[in-house]
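Example 3.2
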Amino acid sequence: MIRTGAAALLALLLAGPAPAVAQSDTTSAASGPTPGGALRRSLIVPGWGQLHVGRPARAVVAAGAVGGLVTAVVLTNGRYVRLRHAYLYVSREDADPTTPDSTNEFVRYQQQWLDAGAPTAADARRQRDGARRTRDLAAVGSALVYVLQALDAYVAAHLLDFDVSEDLSLRAAPAPGGVAATLTVRL
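Structure, written as tokens:
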């Protein structure tokens, strides 16, 4: 059920609007990048939306942040699995190590237990729980950064048309009594 919902959402994002409207959602010479196009691109590949709106430095930061956090999830998951195996090993330490079967995991997890520093059962449980917490926080962080980089591309595309001309300006200028701020509004 979840896979079909995710597949339907991805198909909807990739399909975009009808062909008559699709031209206004892509980069054109007159209007430039649109927010919808930037958002879709960022959701497909982190940083692509920032490139679409002409922000290559932000694209590198977005792609690096998402990639780094996903890497952290993968690495901390490997550590969690190793520590989980070490905990299973040390919790079954009193079983007969010469008869490996589905209930005796002593022999199977011996190397992970040694790699974890041969902890006691309480230490192994504490390390396992800490590794799981770190992995889960990295997963939440990567999802948050993924969404934020997509929103950044969306907002940056909206702000491309923002007026920053000299018609509205605020300047600090020297004055006889010190520094004075001047606000200029040209109509």
